[in-house]
């Protein structure tokens, strides 16, 4: 079980603390708590952008394949893989490869995707501080 201590009870009033408690330990025994810190932070703005992009991709694939979400062929558009590529031409070719079984024109989707990933950052595992 984890509990947040109040800022006033911490030696550093501005840093929140998390205390881990074993399952058989009661909250009346504070001397047995083990202090811990929440050390992993995510860039929430970048996560929101990524989520909106993934939702957009899903909507577009439903339109491209003219089917329900569950019926979209098994394919994975890895945004981080695309961001690793050096040019939009390489990115576009990769997406075109992934959509090779789509019978509808994919050019508008590919150009929209390339436009949306401009300036995005790779989502790597956050580093502990």
How would you describe the overall organization of this protein?
With 129 residues, the protein is mainly α. The chain folds into two domains: 2-36, no CATH class; 44-117, no CATH class. Helices cover 39% and strands 7% of the residues. The chain contains four helices and three strands, in the order βββαααα. The protein has helices spanning 44-65, 79-84, 88-98, 107-117, and strands at residues 2-4, 18-20, 34-36. Strands 1-2-3 form a three-stranded antiparallel β-sheet, with no helix packed on it. Helix 1 (44-65) runs antiparallel to helix 4 (107-117). The protein starts with a strand and ends in a 12-residue tail after the last helix. The model is unreliable at 1-11 (pLDDT under 50).
- The helix tally amounts to 4
What overall geometry do the principal axes of the alpha carbons give? globular
The largest pleated sheet is described as: 3 strands, antiparallel
Strand order of the largest sheet: 1-2-3
Structural class based on helices, strands and sheet pairing: mainly alpha
What is the beta-strand fraction? 5-15%
How helix-rich are the residues, as a percent range?
Answer: 25-40%
Give helix and strand order, one letter per element, not per position.
EEEHHHH
Extended strand count: 3
From the alpha carbons, calculate the radius of gyration and give it in angstroms: 23 Å
Query: How many structural domains does the protein architecture include?
Result: 2
End-to-end distance: 23 Å
Low-confidence stretches: 1-11
How confident overall, as mean pLDDT? 78
Coiled coil: 58-85
Family: Belongs to the PP1 inhibitor family.
Protein name: Protein phosphatase 1 regulatory subunit 14B
GO cellular component, one term: cytoplasm
């Amino acid at each position: 079980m984890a509990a947040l201590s109040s800022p006033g009870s911490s030696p550093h009033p501005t840093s929140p603390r998390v205390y881990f408690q074993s399952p058989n330990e009661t909250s009346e025994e504070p001397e047995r708590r083990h202090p811990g810190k929440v050390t992993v932070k995510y860039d929430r703005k970048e996560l929101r952008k990524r989520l909106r992009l993934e939702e957009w991709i899903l909507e577009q694939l439903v339109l491209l394949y003219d089917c329900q979400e569950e019926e979209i062929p098994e394919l994975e558009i890895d945004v981080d893989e695309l961001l690793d590529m050096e040019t939009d031409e390489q990115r576009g070719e990769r997406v075109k490869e992934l959509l090779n079984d789509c019978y509808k024109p994919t050019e508008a989707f590919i150009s929209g995707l390339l436009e949306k990933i401009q300036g995005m950052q790779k989502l790597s595992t956050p580093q502990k501080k």
